[in-house]
């Protein structure tokens, strides 16, 4: 019997408009009613994950943010753990980005600090206009190394984005060869994410299981991209979206429908509810 459902957000639970379909909402609500913990596991900044937890009525659950750098108990509003990059690593990452003239932003606590307003920071800037004040993400435009130094090892994640995938891959190689004690992954083909070594969704989910006293065999995990690989491999039942990368599909126990066709709801129907969801 499964006791925990770990779900990625982008291109898994969220549709193309970055919203949750009614069918997915109903399926998650029914899974909760059956007694399962539903844990959102995302690369997004903590406030971004908390927003969707609120939408889904999961304010009594634990969430995983920043690809596993933060595990937050929403019921107590306290971190189960918080792991930041070493300041020296953060400074070297920024220097390499500057040398290659590539966009980056990083997360310091609940603040997004960005080199310039573009890509994800532009998205959140526009999204803030629709959100209540307590859900808005603070965005600071600042590319100085002094600001990074002042963050005192509390930067959870760097995000590097460019339309040129080869450029992103080149910068990834540069960072891997020149910066130590880091973990790199991708959340999309052109989005590189960097955390402290050992930080990933798998280790965060293991922490959640220990915290909630749940065996990994009782866990279902659903995802689509490189940053979900370890989590899918860890879970008792690892599920890949139809739109997932090939390497994730290869290790998954089951492949559900795509994020555009309520793949999460269909997986919940099959493995948790045993019946179709009416929405």
Automatic annotation (TrEMBL):
- The UniProt transmembrane annotation reads none
UniProt cross-references to InterPro entries, sorted A to Z: Cof (IPR000150), HAD-like_sf (IPR036412), HAD-SF_hydro_IIB (IPR006379), HAD_sf (IPR023214)
Q: Which GO terms describe its molecular function?
A: magnesium ion binding; phosphatase activity
Q: One GO cellular component term, please give it.
A: cytosol
Q: Which Gene3D superfamilies match?
A: 3.30.1240.10, HAD superfamily/HAD-like
Report the Pfam families cross-referenced here.
Hydrolase_3
Q: Which domain of life is it from?
A: Bacteria
Q: Which PROSITE patterns match?
A: COF_2 (PS01229)
Name the PANTHER family for this protein. Answer: HAD SUPERFAMILY HYDROLASE-LIKE, TYPE 3, PHOSPHOSERINE PHOSPHATASE
- Give the matching NCBIfam families: Cof-subfamily, HAD-SF-IIB
What's the name of the protein? Cof-like hydrolase
User: What is the originating organism of this protein?
Assistant: Caldicellulosiruptor saccharolyticus (strain ATCC 43494 / DSM 8903 / Tp8T 6331)
Query: What's the source species' lineage?
Result: Bacteria, Bacillati, Bacillota, Bacillota incertae sedis, Caldicellulosiruptorales
